[in-house]
Amino acid sequence: MGSSHLPTTTAYIRVTHQSWQQGLLEGEVSAGAFEWRFQWRFRCDKSLMIHPSAGRALIQEPLGRFLEKWDYQLEPGGDYSFIVRAKL
Asked: Model pTM?
């Protein structure tokens, strides 16, 4: 069974706040029936905080990879999406 047969869910991101001085990006992410708020500190420790905790384990790794790849291209008010290789 190849990766093309894995279930997928589209995750949608809205960036609500960005501070280059603080190295901070905040926003909301939703996938399936779940919705979370996140805070990404991309300068120092690259920490990712996600609230609420329900379903957080499902989104933390794929959201972290997306943010690491695109953080400098994301803008407040922007809407973005990526694919999660799971059914949420």
From this structure: 0.87
Per the rule left: phi > 0, alpha: psi between -120 and 50, beta: everything else, 77 is: left
Domain boundaries, the chain: 13-82
- Whole-angstrom distance, CA of residue 10 vs CA of residue 15: 16
- Only one residue has tokens 């959201």, namely 63
Contact 36, 25 (CB under 8 A): no
Q: In angstroms, what CA-CA distances link 63 with 1, 40, 60?
A: 25, 10, 5
Which DSSP letter does residue 46 get? -
Per-residue pLDDT tens digits for 25-60: 999 999 999 999 999 998 878 899 999 999 999 999
- The 8-class DSSP code of residue 72 comes to G
